[in-house]
Amino acid sequence: MPIPRRRTVLGAAAAALAAPALAACGGEGAGGGSKTLRYTLWDQNQYPAMIKAAKEFESQNPGVHISLELVPYGQYWTKLQTAAIGGTAPDVAWMSTLTFQLFAAYDQLLPLSTAANAASIGAANYPPALVEAYAWKGQQYGLPKDYDTIGLWYNKQLFDKAGVRYPDATWTWSDLRDAARKLTDKKAGVHGFAAEMSNQSCYYDFIYQNDGFVISPDRKRSGYDNPRTVEAITFLIDMIKDGSSPSMAEIVDSGSASLFQSGKLAMTYQGSWMTPQFAAVPLLKKYGDVTVMAKGRKRATITNGLGNCVFRTTRNPELAKKFALFMSGKRTGEIQAEAGVVIPGYRGTEKAWLATNKQWQLQSFIDEVPYAVPFPHSINSTAWQDDEQTYLPQAWAGYDDIGDATRKLADAMNLDLRREARTA
Amino acid sequence: MSSRAMTTRRASIGSHAVLAVGALVMVVPFIWQIITSLKTIGESTQVPPGLWPAHPQWSNFDQVFTDLPFGSMFLNTALVAVGRTVAQLLFCSLAGYAFARLRFPGRNIIFAVFLALLMVPSYLLIIPQYQVIQSIGWLNTVQGIMLPGMFSAFGTFLLRQFFAGLPPSLDEAARIDGANPLRIWWSVMLPLVRPGLAALAVLTFLWSWNDLLWPLVVITSPDKMTLSPGLASLQSQFTTNYPVLMAGALVATVPVIAVFIVLQRQFIEGVAAAGNKG
Lengths: 424, 278
Fold this sequence. Notes:
- The complex is a heterodimer.
- Chain A is an alpha/beta fold.
- Chain A folds into 2 domains: about 25-145 and about 305-345, D-Maltodextrin-Binding Protein, domain 2 (3-Layer(aba) Sandwich), CATH 3.40.190; about 150-305 and about 375-424, D-Maltodextrin-Binding Protein, domain 2 (3-Layer(aba) Sandwich).
- Helix content of chain A is about 45%, strand content about 15%.
- In chain A, the strands form 5 sheets. Chain A has a 5-stranded mixed β-sheet. A 4-stranded mixed β-sheet of chain A has the order 10-11-9-12.
- In chain A, a hairpin with a 2-residue loop joins strand 6 and strand 7.
- In chain A, helix 2 packs antiparallel against helix 15, helix 8 packs across helix 9 (about 225-240) and helix 18 (about 380-395) runs antiparallel to helix 19 (about 400-424).
- Chain A is globular.
- Chain A starts with 8 loop residues before the first helix and ends with a helix.
- Chain B is mainly α.
- Chain B has a domain at about 70-235: MetI-like (MetI-like fold).
- Chain B starts with a helix and ends with a helix.
- Mean pLDDT of chain B is about 90; it is low at about 275-278.
- Chains A and B meet through helix 1, strand 2, helix 3 and helix 11 of A and helix 6 and helix 12 of B.
């Protein structure tokens, strides 16, 4: 292979962008009126639905080719950051509420509209918490293509055996705790509930249900020194102490979902994304069900959703924006719902998703939307998520007093947030 | 006499027992992988885990081939692995030979700098290497994956040690016969370091076959992708279909095992030959 003479960085970037276009179009050059958009995503389970939606966009827009690039989640952000630094980012990419700010802060993303004018791109059709989560510094960078909430999954067989009433929308924290105690059967190795050290599908929900917070609304301060936050964590750890939840070690070893699938766990908080996996387990198909989470001082669920964001380096900004909106839009919503993997973000399109598993009250996930809280984040969330992973296990495993662990965590997190404010 | 035979026998039973346990430890994960590849999702995550699937799910293997463009991924992986292995054998043996047998000013300092390269974590090199490949215009090409792995400080170090262990009389004799350094390297030295070359070939091939992050960063279109990133994409953020993942990993491993069964004999022959000549 001859090595071409050195080109300018810009020229190389353009050439690199053109290369996949050429490969994808089978020799049809950019001058031939055809345009290629590169679209990066990470979920194999959603890939077929994304291909179908992209095909529809192609047929509605003659001469446009969408090149889908599936990247494993574990390496997704590394790849995207490397490509962005090299100036060869895709035109449109999946983003999460946690990460898009980092790309926006480094001026990599193209806003779809101003946040104030988000109605012009149809923002009213999406869960408000997530529309807000994709706004940054007055600009709207994305709309949620899907969303998730957390539900109280339970095993009716174990409830019948223990003679406990099934959970429903009237349940409060004390109902949850009492039931967990009654459902625990040490001899059978069954626990009532999993007080898991999992952020989105466990302790974050408890914290917000108790009127506490993980990060202050202005994203400048940690919430781990807030008494309500500490109280919520104490409530969870107490369930491990009185034996109605497996220990942290047991949960980490087997995973709460595996325990639930094996009939060793009567109740567990799990995200809507677990639906397809649980449906593949005969025991849960027959005896499983789901309802809204128990009410604390108030109702809350953590919600997250993926957005389609446009990179600034795109050579077809208007087309890329159109595609990003299409991939979050109504028709894509319907296609995603039929695939049954995630709840589509566009209001009204979730009906087909509900129908994929009629044996369960999946509507519970949608009922939770009005009080949904966006996944707590700041520009550099990973910094303080590492702090959580450092200090919280100490409390969960009982090595450290809960008050001490949360105080240390609050200090470490506040330090990170000050550092973040300096660099931003 | 007979008691001695008894002790030898007892010792041999003992060593066999130890070896059997070792073999079992090595083989069990592999057997577990085969069993898991035939389970349903529910069976694969059951607590406590069950041993046999109720009905072997051969369809998991079909699904690997529908989920991934397995054929082209396989071809790319083989191409990259062979290319890198051949290139490393060539370049590292040249460099190793120069560092061990040729005298030139600054030799030891340059070698020390090479060794220092071993301390640099590979993740640190991703972005500079990406920019190099980008400036050549090789992003999203198979040769783009191959290039950074065609030479290694480790391989140079490894082969230098082999070259340095050969008696100096060999190149003196060759030089008196009128051979130039390149000729000495090719005709005299290379045949003698065959075990070193075999070891480097094995290591490079395996490393390249498993390489995950670099191909992923360089390649954007699925038809140029290699197997490791393909298999990694079967793992999702929250849920993973482990049986299908295991089936895919199994199909990806089988050819490597085949290659090593073939190479193993040459590897041992190489070692034996070196022993005779020394």
